[in-house]
Each structure stands twice: as structure tokens, then as C-alpha cells.
Amino acid sequence: MERPTALITGATSGLGAEFAQQLGRSQHDLVLVARDTARLEAKAVRLRTDFGVRVEVLPADLITDDGVASVSARLADPARPVSVLVNNAGFSLVSAFEKNTAADEAAHLRILAQTPMELMHAVLPGMLARGTGRIVNISSVSAFIPRGSYGAAKAWLTSFSRFANLRYGPKGVQVTAVCPGFVHTEFHERMGANMGRVKSWMWLNADQVVREGLADNAAGKAVSIPSRRYATLMGLARLVPDRLAASAGNRGR
Ligand SMILES: NC(=O)c1ccc[n+]([C@@H]2O[C@H](COP(=O)([O-])OP(=O)(O)OC[C@H]3O[C@@H](n4cnc5c(N)ncnc54)[C@H](OP(=O)(O)O)[C@@H]3O)[C@@H](O)[C@H]2O)c1
To answer: Following CA atoms 115, 118, 121, 123 in sequence, which dihedral angle do they give, to the nearest 10 degrees?
Structure first.
């Protein structure tokens, strides 16, 4: 029997590498996307050996038109259908909005919102024609609190996922925004953020985030907030003034 294929962006580290691991383990063939080709190749060798699945490596810079076009072409190829799209690649900017250049902000907005939109646009027609598909968009709890342009971009992704799940879920395509809190990955180190003020109980492991995110997507949920503690916190964040909600997120700066 043909194995389903999952395409994962940002598969070299953190949550993306964990999605590759869990989807490979559940017998999905994989397409791994990121910029670092050597690291992608090394992951691919490991995944083939561990799970006996096919693994393609697709190097692409997802803040460039060419990079997004090459991944879109792979997603839209009717000869090699993709059943699961994980829009995960991302980064954040350490400085405040007014201190960044507009070009830095544009690249940041692109990878967090525009690129996932373009990749969904490429994969959806095939999924709808086949009457089945899964899209997992990695958002953040920052979508629910005032948290600069990062939170605003994640709010866009979460809102669009909610719409898309309503519209395409009944047609067989489940769309979920996975909204984690702080997760142990390379994200904060790459950003150059000082995470010393984040309490240990606020940290999640990638393994749990991906497991719960995939389960919620399989269950057809539009929004997944991994861990009971973050689900409770986000319930409370809706009730308190913006200033209070924002202060919790600001620890990671
Ligand atoms: N860690 C957290 O606390 C946390 C919390 C909530 C949400 N998130 C979200 O989770 C997602 C994954 O982040 P992570 O925590 O796993 O961070 P990470 O370990 O730094 O991984 C980021 C991934 O994105 C890829 N990437 C970065 N820029 C790219 C570009 N221009 N083109 C293509 N790929 C690019 C990186 O690969 P290359 O460098 O090889 O390109 C890497 O594979 C992000 O969307 C982030 O916003 C993270």
C-alpha cells in the first residue's frame, strides 16, 4: 500500500525535526524543507534507517520568492501527492518593532504568515480534489496576547486556520493551528534572547507539543494548545487586561 507523504518546513531542528520523527514513525514518507542542506541530508539518512520510509530533501529559503515557488511546485505536483503539510519554519526578532528595519520585519512577517498562506494555497486544490488532507500550522500562544509583530503574525495564522478548518474540514481537509508556549528548541538561541526569567514550569518539550498537535489535528480541532497548563493560562489571558497578559510573554526577552 502507498504510504502518505508529509511535507514539513523547518525540519532541521526543534519542532520540525520532531514532526519528521513522529510522522516517519507512523509510516509517512517525508519531504524535509529548510535552508541547511547538509543538516537536512543527515536527518534524512537517519529517518530512512530508523523507519524505512522514503525521505526527500528540498532545500529552500522560505523568505524568498524562489524558495517558496519550489516548495509550492512540489506541493502542487499531482504525480506525487502530499497528504500532510506542516507549516513550521520560523524565527523571531530579538529587538523591539521600532528598532528593527522594515525589511527585517517584512521577512519575519513573510515566513510566519505569507509563506504558510502560499503553501496552503498550493496544496489545497489537490487535497480538495482527493477529498482528504491534513494541514498543521505552527502558531504560538503569542497569538492570544499582545506580543509585537510576532504575536500579530501568529494571530493571523491562527485566525486563518480557524477559517480554513471550518471551510475545508467538511470537505476532508483538517486544518489546525498548533499554539505552543515556550518550547525547548533552537528558537531562542537563534534569536539571541535571554530566557533566564522564564520559570522552569513554563517550558514544554517538542515531543509533547508535536504529539498533542497531531492528535488534535486528527480529531479535527482548529486550534491546539499543547499542555493543560497553557490551555488554562490562555483561558485566563482572555479575562485579564492586555498589560497583564503581555507581561507573562515578555519574560522571553
Ligand atoms: N520554541 C518555542 O518556544 C516556540 C513557541 C511557539 C511557537 N514556536 C514556533 O515553532 C516553529 C518552529 O520553531 P522552533 O522552536 O522549532 O525553532 P528552531 O529550532 O529554531 O527551528 C526553526 C526551523 O525553521 C527553519 N528556518 C528558519 N528560517 C528559515 C528560512 N528562511 N527558510 C527555511 N527554513 C527556515 C530552520 O532551519 P534552517 O536554519 O536550516 O533553515 C529550522 O529548521 C516556529 O514557527 C516558531 O515560531 C516556537
So the answer is: -60
- What confidence category does residue 249 fall into, taking pLDDT thresholds of 50, 70 and 90? low
Alpha helices for the chain (secondary structure H): 14-25, 37-51, 65-76, 102-109, 115-130, 148-168, 187-191, 206-218, 228-237, 242-249
What CATH class is the domain 5-249? alpha beta
Convert the pLDDT of each residue in 132-180 to its tens digit: 999 999 999 999 999 999 999 999 999 999 999 999 999 999 999 999 9
- Looking at this protein, which amino acid is placed at residue 211? R
What are the extents of the domains in the chain?
Answer: 5-249
Cell of 235: 483561558
Chain position carrying cell 529517518:
47
List all residues whose CB is within 6 A of at least one atom of ligand 1: 10-16, 34-36, 39, 61-63, 88-91, 111, 138, 140, 180, 182-183, 185-187, 190
